[in-house]
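Open question from group meeting: does this chain pack into something compact, or does most of it stay loose? Before anyone orders reagents, we agreed to write out a predicted structure and look at it together. Recording both the input and the output here so the notebook holds the full record.
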Amino acid sequence: MKTPQKAKTQPRKSARSRTQPSAASVKLAHEKRPVLRHFRLVSHKHTGTLIHFRHTSHVALMGILVLVGFFLVISQNLTQAANVTVGVVVQGPAPSVGALITSPIDGFSIVNLNPVQVEGTCAPRTFVVAYNDNTLAGSTICSNDGVFSVGVQLHTGKNVLTARNFDDLNQPGPDTPAVTVNFSEEEVLQDAPKPDLPENPVIIPGVTGPNECEDYNPSGLLTTGGKPRVAVVCVPRTIEQNKDHRVGILVWGGTPPYALSFEWGSGESTLISMDAPGYRTVKVHYASSGVYNINVKVTDRSSNAATGESAVEVVKNNQPQTFTDVVNGIFTTSWFETPVPLYVIAVGLTMGFWAGDLFDRHFGARRLTKQRRRRA
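C-alpha cells returned:
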C-alpha cells in the first residue's frame, strides 16, 4: 500500500517579508531614467508608498528655489521698467480758498526780530507766495492740513505783508486782506533799492524749458549798501528725484563779499560765495520723493545776515529704466520683497527639513542605535 505523499508546505513568510517587498520589487522610478537619478526627486512607482529620506536631494530643491527666486526678482524689475506714466493736464478752476495770514496780526510792532515767521491758512497742496510791499519775500508749499509758514525779511518802518496761493497750473487764488506790521531795531541801516523780482518764483516771464533758471536774466538795479538781502527768484514747482536741478537766487545790499548757506531740507547743505550783488544758480539733487523746504542764508562782510525761503516737491522718476538700471535693481532688491510672499515660506520650510535631515543622520536615534550595536 502506497503511503500518501505529504503535501509540500511552503515556508511561512516572516512578518518582515510580508510588510516589506523584496529588493527586486522595490525599484524607484528614477532608476529607469538616468537623468532623473541625479536629482532623486521622483517618488516610488507605487502610489502612496513612502521612500527613505536619503532619496530626497535638498541641494537640488534649494537650487530650484534659487532659480525661482531669481526669475521672480527679474520679472518684478522688468514689470517696473515697463510701467510708464502718461499725464494729461486738464484746465480746472482756480483755487477757491486764498492764502490768509494769521500771524503776525495786523498793526503789530516788531523790534529786533528779523526775519519774522509769517503763518496762515491756505488750500492744501497749493504753492504759497508771500509778499512784502507787493514784492516777492518768500514761498513755500501749503501742507495737507491747509497751513503754511514762511520766513519773511522785514525792512525798517511799515511792512505790508500779503500772501497768495497758486495751483498746479499756477492759477492764483482769491486775494486776502493784507497785514501791516512795523519793524524797528536799535541799529538802523538803510535798505538798498530792491531789484525787479518776479511775482511767482515758479513763473519766470519770457523764459521756458528745463533750463529756465539758468536762462533767467534778472532786471533792475543790484546795488550794495544797507542790509544784505537774498531772494529765491527761480525754483521748479516739482522736480524728479535722482536728477540734478537748478535753483536761482538774487543777492544785493550789504557789504560784499557774501557767504551763502543753502539748507535743502534733506539733511544736505551747500556753501558758496559771491564777490558782488547778482544772480546765481545752485544745483540741487534729491534722492527720494517728498516736500522739502529750502532755506538760504546770506552773510556779508560786516557779518550782517538775511534769509530767504522756498519749497519744492520731489516726485518719483517715471521714465523707462535702462538695462543697467534693471540689472542694478536685481542685485539691490531684497528677496523678501519678491512678488510672491509664499516663496520665502517655501525657502524656510526647505531649509528646515534639510536641517532636520542632517540632524537625524548625525544625531538621530538610528545613528545612536548603530553606534550601540557596534560597541556591543
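Observations to bring back to the group:
The longest helix spans residues 58-82.
Residues 60-84+337-376 form one domain.
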